[in-house]
């Protein structure tokens, strides 16, 4: 019976990963360590909270004593590090917390895992540290080409720079100690339980509240979108089949301009709700993000050829599922967007 330590498991991708894994395997234990920052939400996990193979620990990956206790008490086989400050716009306003959690927290986790997994000069071979990283560490692309794993890192935002720093530290634990690590670099995720500061749930939330939908700059920046369950499946496969020390890009060939995404989702919402009064008039072009990366696009050939993972959910199907999820979970959305979120939103968009 393998034991997974999932950090950041109350966030968007972490909670989807826990739900995915517990629905797939009966013979695993999952410990979810999460600080419950603004983006961590235990109600994401109500469907599995009573599962006897699941345990929640509230805490910070920067807390050495707490991590020591967890590794001491449980025989952790896999550490999957989702815990992070994850929003580029927030990183532009407050970079320090990104360095603390994303860099120092990762080093902390590596150190404790190394201490418990190391046998004399080598490592227990069936352990694995998975660093959940992002394609943003590669920087921005021009009009052609895709990110491959061997590209130099060239991050621009404080967020992506903190993730790139963490990637380099994780890699150094393989290069130096032969620690069994993998680094995954995924493109933009969308799906259920995503905090509505990110583009897709923000579009849905603003539409439902008849609020302008802010489009940064000319709206022609390009992101490469992946449905979150596909990301979870890829991580599971990398834990099973990934070659120690390797980096894997994860993406589904779904490049779209932001303005296309906004218009497409408004149309889907119009169709699903039957509310044709709301139209593209909600779109509001606003001041561009500072240092806004123009284009991201993943080349997933390595994970496709070496691991056998391939994206299977078409963008249109993933968006429809996502829109329906938000429409069916308005209580979740209303709760998460009341209070602090309103202050965040007003502050973030006041100069735009
Ligand atoms: P999220 O913001 O929804 O969740 C982050 C979670 O980490 C929250 O539950 C939060 O409470 C927790 N957390 C934050 N600081 C912590 C700390 N110090 N100790 C313990 N827990 C802490 O983020 P997400 O979108 O789910 O992203 C998860 C991971 O995936 C991140 O590492 C992110 O860089 C990476 N990633 C995200 C995307 C995307 O599109 N969302 C794409 C590629 C990679
Ligand atoms: P986001 O969801 O923040 O992800 P990331 O910046 O990590 O890629 O943003 C996705 C794209 O959408 C990015 O090009 C910025 C743009 N964007 C807007 O145009 N308006 C918005 O209100 C937000 C949040 C993002």
From TrEMBL:
SUPFAM superfamilies: NAD(P)-binding Rossmann-fold domains. Gene3D superfamilies: NAD(P)-binding Rossmann-like Domain, UDP-galactose 4-epimerase, domain 1. Residues 5-320 form the NAD(P)-binding domain. It comes from the Bacteria. This is dTDP-glucose 4,6-dehydratase. Keywords: Lyase, NAD. Its cofactor is NAD(+). Its EC number is 4.2.1.46.
